[in-house]
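Appendix B. Chain record.
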Amino acid sequence: MQTLLGIGSRVEHPDFGPGVVINLKSNGYTITYIQHGVRVMRFDAPLTVVEAVEPDTDLVSLFDVEMALSRVLQKWADVTEIVPLGDKWKGGKLILKPGRTDLAAKEIPIDTFFHKIVMLRDRMRTLEQRVNASGLTDEEKIAIQQYITRMYGSLTSFNVLFKQAEHQFVGEKSGAESMA
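Structure tokens predicted for this chain:
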């Protein structure tokens, strides 16, 4: 039995490419594809799930639809954004060598590792968006936002992999920098 996808789920179709579920019908999904617009797809259509969202058990209000549409539009930028790996790293590999001599080293293509870093960054951005759109108090949002900012700061070591500076992680700025 196939699991139902909720509104906002990101999918990939072999012919239509990346898309987002915008509605559920009795016989299938309404999906907006980046290159092919809105299509109604049967539940058994050949879809690869990129990011699943649980379907709501309640009826959907206009506010819920607006929030889902807002999330879809925010995700469009992430779907179409191409984040290039720095040229000097292309074709390279990351070698993890254990401190113990009885264990083998592990090699990972840098492209694969970089893709995981970009996915982590994109998921942190989505987390920020969900926190900001949540019903939390302003104090709670600020506390979580500061924590996320510190997480970005912890990941700045990986900025060396990015080709363009605007794609890099940015953490907390020092007092002099934030005053500028």
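Further analysis of this model is presented in Appendix C.
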